[in-house]
Amino acid sequence: MEYKNLLVEKDGTIVTVTINRPKVLNALNDETMAELEACFEELEKDDGVRAVIVTGSGEKSFVAGADIGELKDQDRKGGEERSLRGQAILLKIENLSKPVIAAINGYALGGGCELAMACDIRIASETAKLGQPEVNLGIIPGYGGTQRLTRLVGLGKAKELIFTGEMIHAQEAHRIGLVDKVVSPDQLMETAKKMAKTIAGKGPIAIANAKKAINIALDGNVKKGREVEAEGFGVLCETEDMKEGMAAFFEKREPKFVGK
Ligand code: COA
Predict the structure, then answer these.
(1) What's the 154 CA to ligand 1 centre distance in angstroms?
(2) Where in the chain is the domain with CATH 3.90.226.10?
(3) C-alpha 117 to ligand 1 mean position (Å)
């Protein structure tokens, strides 16, 4: 599918989705959000996709937030609807049955930081800066950021970042658990693609079930999490991929997973 504000490139089983509005530092306007939703719906349906990378166009910015031009005239009802819609779209990314890696190439602010947090794994360039600066505009994070940031970095740090609106460098984001890896700018896409390829080489049903169980690990319902984990474990026991994986182990060879 062709998009106006997204570049979608497929390399084997790995798809890279690039937010492409560099003139406004890849800010997320309504049109781009709708395209992200449509794109991730397509990715969900495509059995040929085993891993997704999300990044921003240009060297300066991953995504510098929601498009402030579209935010300024909304009323209470419109604001709440915008927030619910943004949350729903990022939930589609979080719940995609395939792994999603954010390659954070610059500013990841506001909705950009929220988009990165909806991805499974965050790799940042040394030059990246992250933050939730919404309070500077008199608003709060509205695309799930209050919840995801708190889970990633804990109550105190989440409050510090959201209350102060201050940006932090990639290394500090790494130290507090907001990003998982920091690399030089020229290594960013290579590192993300290497990790995507490693994960894409595993059984897709195993990755999908691991993701599903991990995603509810912090729901506060550990019992439910264990049940989902057990259910996924059972599902996998009847797959060809599990038989292949275990056979390959004993035969001391690389497994060939087929997704069945
Ligand atoms: N929405 C709409 N436009 C944005 C934007 C956003 N979130 N972020 C940046 N832009 C636009 C700027 O208005 C500017 O447009 P112009 O060239 O027509 O003036 C262009 O992108 C470049 O940004 P600029 O501010 O000139 O770059 P900078 O290097 O001086 O500063 C930032 C970079 C990221 C620090 C700054 O753009 C910024 O603070 N952006 C807003 C971040 C934010 O509050 N996000 C949360 C939104 S809820």
Answers:
(1) 28
(2) 6-200
(3) 20
pLDDT at 46 > cutoff 80: yes
pLDDT of res. 36: 98
Confidence of residue 9 (pLDDT cuts 50, 70, 90): very high
List all residues whose CB is within 6 A of at least one atom of ligand 1: 24-25, 27, 64-69, 107, 109-111, 133-134, 137
Phi, psi of 50 (to 5 degrees): -115, -15
Ligand 1 geometric centre to CA of 218 (Å): 33
Set 9, 37, 94, 134: catalytic member: 134
- Options 3.30.70.20, 3.40.50.800, 3.90.226.10, 3.30.70.120; CATH of 6-200: 3.90.226.10
Clarify whether 231 is annotated catalytic.
no
From the list 114, 227, 231, 251, the catalytic residue is: 114
CATH 1.25.40 given to domain 204-250: no
Establish whether 114 is a catalytic residue: yes
Start-end ranges of CATH 1.10.12 in the chain?
204-250
3-state secondary structure of 45: helix
With H, G, I as helix, E, B as strand and everything else as coil, classify residue 70. Answer: helix
Average pLDDT, the chain: 95
